[in-house]
Amino acid sequence: MESVTLQPRSARIGLGIELRKTGIGKHRHAPSADHYVSLHAGPPVRIACTNGIRDVRSRGQINVFPAGTAEEWFEDDASDMLHVRLPASLARLAAQEMGLDADRVGIASRCHVRDVQIEHIAWALAAEQRADSPSGLIYRESLGMALAVHLLAHHSAPAAPRTGLSQGQLARVTEYIEAHLGEDVSLLRLARISGVSASHLRALFKRSMGIPVHEYIIQRRVERARALLSHGELPASQVALEAGFSHQSHMARCMRRILGVTPASIARARNHRQT
């Protein structure tokens, strides 16, 4: 799967957007701590779902992957997809702004549906980033909030029962991980920060985020590496160390597994933008 990053996402809100050109074959959306919305941006593509149902994905149709969900499918044709990453923290903030209980409302899975509002927001984000974000962070934040509000208003679902870490515990753990991505993050250290045992932390973190803590750390390292590579100020070997990977090939394997992209392709996309 080839992925072309349009621009590094906003560091503050974690909102991301990228155009992925996928080939014929099996594809998988891996569980993530954040929500994803994908918009079909090319000619019709024949799809075979794992439940045996066959369908045709048309331009403008969207898929919604809530945090923690995974999907697999087979594509009979190459496709162009615009992927929007919506941080779970932004969705929770939107729920609070709407007067909803963020622990009782979530975002529903959607497959091959039309939603003109989501389509407009996705293309607006893509246009803004292609133009090197001339309207600034406030505009991107407003688009991200508009997307979160629309999903909660029109594509909501009861949130899964939350019996994981408290909001304060989760904030302390994720903030520590973010601040120490370049180091060997210790599970015992995270347990002490959260105030629970290491075994309980593993279980509670997965209930809260939908993925194991070690997978969350890898995802955050991959995102850190992608941002550094997109800036182009460091060689790939140094980026691997800065992001917390043991070596460059380890970084490349993780990026391909999670993003479907290699460090070299990110460098090519950066060079293309600069020319």
Mean pLDDT: 86
CATH topology call of the largest domain? Jelly Rolls
Low-confidence region ranges: 1-12
Structurally, how many domains make up the residues?
Answer: 2
- Which class best fits the helix and strand makeup? alpha+beta
Helix content: 40-55%
What distance lies between the first and last C-alpha atoms, to the nearest angstrom?
A: 24 Å
How does the overall form come out from the CA principal axes?
A: globular
Strand content: 15-25%
Question: Can you count the helices?
Answer: 10
Q: What strand order characterises the main sheet? A: 1-2-9-4-7-11
Oligomeric state as shown: single chain
| H-E order | EEEEEEEEEHEEHHEHHHHHHH
- Compute the number of strand runs: 12
What CATH architecture of the largest domain would you give?
A: Sandwich
Largest sheet: 6 strands, antiparallel
CATH class of the largest domain: Mainly Beta
Rg, nearest Å? 19 Å
CATH homologous superfamily caption of the largest domain: Jelly Rolls
Pfam family, one: HTH_18
Keywords: DNA-binding, Transcription, Transcription regulation
InterPro entries: AraC_XylS_family_regulators (IPR050204), Homeodomain-like_sf (IPR009057), HTH_AraC (IPR018060)
Protein name: AraC family transcriptional regulator
Features:
six-stranded antiparallel sheet, transcription regulation, Jelly Rolls, AraC family transcriptional regulator, alpha+beta, four-stranded antiparallel sheet, 10 helices, Arc Repressor Mutant, subunit A
Describe it for me?
Keywords: DNA-binding, Transcription, Transcription regulation. It comes from Pendulispora rubella. InterPro entries: AraC_XylS_family_regulators, Homeodomain-like_sf, HTH_AraC. This protein is an alpha+beta fold. It folds into 2 domains: 2-158, Jelly Rolls, CATH 2.60.120; 167-274, Homeodomain-like (Arc Repressor Mutant, subunit A, Orthogonal Bundle). Helix content is 46%, strand content 22%. It contains 10 helices and 12 strands. The chain has helices at 88-97, 116-130, 136-154, 167-179, 187-194, 198-209, 213-231, 236-242, 248-259, 263-274; strands at residues 2-5, 16-22, 25-29, 35-40, 45-49, 54-57, 61-65, 71-75, 79-86, 105-107, 110-114, 156-158. It has a 6-stranded antiparallel β-sheet. Helix 1 (88-97) crosses helix 3, helix 2 packs antiparallel against helix 3 and helix 7 packs parallel to helix 10. The longest helix has 19 residues, at 136-154.
